[in-house]
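Figure 3 (text version): structure tokens given as input.
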């Protein structure tokens, strides 16, 4: 699976951004799409996940109620709508394809592919 993330940028606190992750060469083996983020000097953390088949979703507590993950099966694209952004949301955001649904770690062997990352900067 090849993943291409886009949509990052600079936004003021309280603003919104929508990230996209286009998948090509997808196989049924990788049925889960995840978003992670990595702030400077910190580890890469789980943000949200969605299953391609049933559209089940799960979020990190830090973004629940503000972020929404969705998918367009026709376009093989997953989105992350981010609202009410805070300075602490500043990070490089990565999409990943995998086989395990849940709040998994970035080092999990259940993750098969990664996108290149897109930078989100939230100014105060």
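Below: residues designed for each position.
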């Amino acid at each position: 699976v090849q993943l291409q993330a886009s949509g990052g940028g600079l936004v003021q606190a309280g603003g919104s951004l929508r990230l996209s992750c286009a998948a090509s060469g997808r196989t049924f083996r990788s049925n889960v799409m995840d978003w992670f983020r990595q702030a400077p000097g910190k580890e890469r953390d789980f943000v949200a996940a969605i299953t391609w088949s049933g559209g089940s979703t799960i979020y990190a507590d830090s973004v629940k109620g503000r972020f929404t993950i969705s998918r367009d099966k026709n376009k093989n694209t997953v989105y992350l709508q981010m609202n009410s952004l805070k300075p602490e949301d500043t990070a490089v955001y990565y999409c990943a394809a995998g086989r395990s649904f849940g709040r998994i770690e970035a080092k999990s062997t259940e993750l098969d592919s990664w996108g290149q990352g897109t930078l989100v900067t939230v100014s105060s």
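The chain has a mean pLDDT of 95.
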